[in-house]
Every structure is written in C-alpha cells, then in structure tokens.
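Batch manifest, entry 17 of 40.
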Amino acid sequence: MKCLVTGGAGFIGSHLVEKLLKNGHSVSVIDNFSTGRKSNLSHLKSKIKLYKKNIAVRGNWEKIFKNIDVVFHLAALADIVPSIQEPKKYFEANVVGTYNVLACCRKYKIKKIIYSASSSCYGIPEKYPTDENAKIDPQYPYALTKRMGEELVMHWSKLYRLNAISLRFFNVYGTRSRTSGTYGAMFGVFLAQKLAKKPFTIVGNGKQTRDFTYVSDVVDAIYRAWKSNIKDQIFNVGSGKTISVNKIVQILGGKKTYVPKRPGEPDCTFADMKKIKKILKWKPKVNINEGIKKILKEIDYWKDAPVWTPKKINFETRDWFKYIKNK
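Output type: structure tokens
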C-alpha cells in the first residue's frame, strides 16, 4: 500500500515510518521540520520519499496525495506555553493544516485517514479512568486546536465518507521524543537533566500520576486502526495504568528539586481502554520499567536538548500562570 505520513520526521511519525516500511509498504513523508528532525529518518532516506512542506499553506505539495492509499496525519505543533503565546500559529498548524490535509484526502479519494488526537482535550477529567465519552474541556490553545482538528476529521469522515479514525494519545514517551528548545514533555526535560547531572525539576509534590504510553505501542495502535474495517470512531490510546512522577524520578535515579504546581493540569491522566480493546483488539505491551530501559540505552539522543533549571522554568512558564487559572 502507498502510505503518506504527515509529521513523519517527528517523534511518533518516524517510528511509524519504520513500521510501515518493515511491513512492506511504500512511504512518503511530509514534514516542515519545525520540531521533526531529518536525523530521525536518516537511516531510511533511501527507502522513502521525503518532502519539506508546510501543510498550513496550500501549495504544490497537495499533488503528493495523488495515488496514496492511506494518510496518517501526525503533523502538529505541541507544547502548552508556546500555544498560549502564539495561538494563531497553533491554529494555522493544527486546524488549518488539518483542513488542508482533509481537502487533499477528499480530492484524491484517499481510502482511509488516521488522525493523531490528544487526551489533553479532556482537560481536568471528572472521572478516572477516562473514557471517550467524557466531557471535552481543553485548558489551553494546543489542546483546543488538536480537538478542533479532530472535530474536522470526524465531520468530514461522516459527511464526505472519508473513512477516518481518531486516536487520542495519552502521555506518549520513548526514544526520539522531542528535544526542542521549548519547555514541554517531562521525559525530554528529565533526560537532559540526567545527562547534565542536574536535579530533576518535579512539578508540585510529584504525587500526580500519568498514563505513560510507550511509542511502539502507540504505533501499533495506529497500524491496527488502519488495518481494521472500523471507521468514524474515536479511541483512547494509553497504557491503562498510571504511575507517579516521583516514581519515575526514583527509576531514573538522581537528585530532585521542585517547581510550583501549574494550573490547568490534571492530577491524573488515566485512559479507559475498554473500547479500543474490544473493537480494535489492541492492547499495550511495554510497561513503564521496560520503556525507561529502552530510553536510557539511547539517552545520548538528548545530549543537545536544553537543560532546564527552576529559574528558567519559572521564567518560561510565566504566561502559563498568567492566563490559566486553577478551578
């Protein structure tokens, strides 16, 4: 099959490209390299077609969709603080970009589209584990724009019969996770601190728990969703378990320090997995201890990532506290 991966040079995208190639499929990748890295695909460059394009701006890149069988739409801007500071940029990338991808899918009669959504759409859930029917309550522009993208995908799937599935990812971690200059994902922050022999900056008291889902499990869910006969459905993708930030730090080993608890963040993320297990027959395989071992074997990947200190974090997150209020 001929596959197109938007954001294929990114964290999850590059792992998906590997799986598609391993299973004998033809792969094209669109990425603007705002957060993706060419090095993530350097070992595959002779086997793929790689296009540096910005999907938020209509252009000749649309022809890439011709004769494609399936589109995996992973391209997006992530992280909370930049989305608060530049909401227009996030709207263009995550909403307009998704609209443009959908328009191409419709024009070229793509057989199926898999959208990478975010569990951040739930905001601060009222119930744990959280299922797909829970209240949608985005707390910041990143979460809102990913949800708006999902709404577009599901609407177009039903109206124009695009045959789409949306997958809401919970706290994805693993090798090749982002190393950008933006303060964001916990593991990226901690691994750079570990390499620099600096204390881990724990938010609040560290008792908050997260549903950390290893990247290979997420990729397997994406692949399973594509290969299924299911359409017009939304699924949670998580580990189905939670672990505290304090426990993660204990496993990683090292000194720790604390930064203020942040508004708009849940004390727990915990995916209800019943729907995806029942309908797609998918379940995660990698537990947190195995996942961390895999990361530590390739920890040098984060050697050039920014090393965050409490002072830098307090400065970087000032707009977070300014605009997002505790409920």
